[in-house]
Amino acid sequence: MDSMEPEQTPFAAVSAQTSKVSRQYQAWLDKSTPYTPYRWLGTAGLLMVFFIRIFVAQGWYIVAYSLGIYLLNLFLAFLQPKFDPSNEAVDNEMEDGAAGGLPTKQDEEFRPFIRRLPEFKFWYSATRAITIGFFCTWFSIFDVPVFWPVLVVYWLILFALTSESLPL
């Protein structure tokens, strides 16, 4: 007698292949985790290829500007603490009138510096953004005509304003 196994639908086949590729990709990312300098050197090389592409093509300045703003945002999130002690001190002062500071009681716990954006996520997001930006430079729809010095000045102003707000 024939066995009553249901045939695999095309959707299930595609889903199985997608999950297989996803698992292989995640395994590759997991294996690359301890190699921090090499990951960042690869990202820096990719960024240099992107800059060379922009320089040679003499266009896509809006893509480069958008990438610069995104990388600046990632960098600032990387530098900031996940839990800002100054905000907690202000909150505590408002609640009970006492000044915040180091732990004074036995049950209070010191929390070490934890980044708002961990290094691996910073690297992964930056590399993905640079790759997307590089592919965008191959399509003329993203080549919006702009006067690039205005974008550079605007980016520097944004950098200066956001750097002043860093809790250093």
Structure report:
- There is one protein chain.
- By secondary structure, the protein is mainly alpha-helical.
- The chain has helices at 10-32, 36-57, 61-79, 85-96, 119-136, 148-164.
- Helix 2 (36-57) runs parallel beside helix 5 (119-136), helix 3 (61-79) packs antiparallel against helix 5 (119-136) and helix 3 packs parallel to helix 6.
- The mean pLDDT is 81.
- Involved in the retrieval of endoplasmic reticulum membrane proteins from the early Golgi compartment.
- This is Protein RER1.
- It comes from Hyphodiscus hymeniophilus.
- The chain crosses the membrane at residues 38-56, 62-79, 122-141.
Q: How would you summarize what this structure contains?
A:
Belongs to the RER1 family. The protein is an all-alpha fold and 168 residues long. Helices cover 66% and strands 0% of the residues.
Order of helices and strands: HHHHHH
Instruction: Give the overall pLDDT as a whole number.
Output: 81
What structural category arises from helix and sheet content? mainly alpha
Distance between the termini: 76 Å
Task: State Rg.
Answer: 24 Å
The coarse overall form would be flat
Give the SSE map.
Blueprint: H1 10-32, H2 36-57, H3 61-79, H4 85-96, H5 119-136, H6 148-164
Helix pairs in contact: 2-5, 3-5, 3-6
Subcellular location: Membrane
GO cellular component, one term: Golgi membrane
Keywords: Membrane, Transmembrane, Transmembrane helix
